[in-house]
Amino acid sequence: MNERVKLIRKQLGMTQEQLAQRLGIGKAALSMIETGKAGLSTRNRNILVQDLNVNPEWLETGKGEMFNAEPDLTAYMHRTDNSLPLQSVPLYSIEGTAGLVPLFADRTQTKPVNFIHIPNLPKCDGAIYIVGDSMYPLLKSGDIVLYKQLHNIDDIFWGDMYLLSIDIDGEEYVTVKYIQKSDREGYVKLVSQNVHHADKDVEISRIRAIALVKASIRMNSIR
Fold it and tell me: What are phi and psi of 19, to 5 degrees?
């Protein structure tokens, strides 16, 4: 099966980084799968079968056709976003703006705490510090994520990482998660990188704000 994962990637014309992003794992983890040093998890297998239309029998045994139907290549076409030579991305404080909803509603009236200057990034609307360990080790509390706001929930790229504001009993819960399709009508599945956090189905109507994570920054200090 490990070799067949590599064949799928080659057939789709994807780099290891692109397929790893699609599966919600690191590039190193995908490399270990392709070389037979690690197995393919049930979650990753389901993404290949459900989202990329891989024939499950071929994936398991090598028999039959590789794909049940043409894979939906639009799901990762945004990886070719045009990058900007240099841009100033405003860094916001969630505490100072009382959450994502007011920040996204009127970004022009919100004063950034600073600006981030990074060359060759796709267009970003802003950046915030994150808290929590649900995306550890890919992201840790205190890291910065740069995002592009989505105005329509239908524009989700399944399997990608998003910054979300979710209504829980009238309170705003801000988190970063992978978003996958749910088996329940009117729901999406929120998936963590941290294996100690369980996947969770959330009603789409409870998502109050959403943005695609374009990049992340980690601060390492030596004391």
Answer: -70, -35
**Which residues are CB-neighbours of 109 under 8 A, at least 6 positions away?**
none
Tokens of 156: 């989700």
How far is residue 4's CA from residue 182's CA, in Å, rounded to a whole number? 26
Q: Are 83 and 90 in contact (CB under 8 A)?
A: no
Residue identified by tokens 């200090």 is 221
User: Which tens digits make up the pLDDT trace of 60-89?
Assistant: 999 998 888 655 544 444 444 566 677 788
175 CB-side CA count, 13 A:
22
Domains of the chain, first to last:
2-75 (1.10.260.40), 83-217 (2.10.109.10)
CB atoms within 10 A of CB 68: 15
How confident is the model over 183-221, as pLDDT tens digits?
Answer: 999 999 999 988 889 999 999 999 999 999 999 988 765
Does the pTM surpass 0.70? The reply is: no
DSSP letter assigned to residue 206: G
- The token duo for 30 is 């995908």
Joined tokens for residue 122: 């796709």
Tokens 């909803």 label which residue? 101
Cα separation, 31 vs 23, in Å, equals 12
Q: In this structure, which amino acid lies at residue 193?
A: Q
Question: Both ends of the chain: CA-CA distance in Å?
Answer: 45
Say what the alpha-carbon torsion angle 168, 171, 172, 174 is, to the nearest 10 degrees. -70
If you search the block for the tokens 């860094």, which residue do you land on?
91
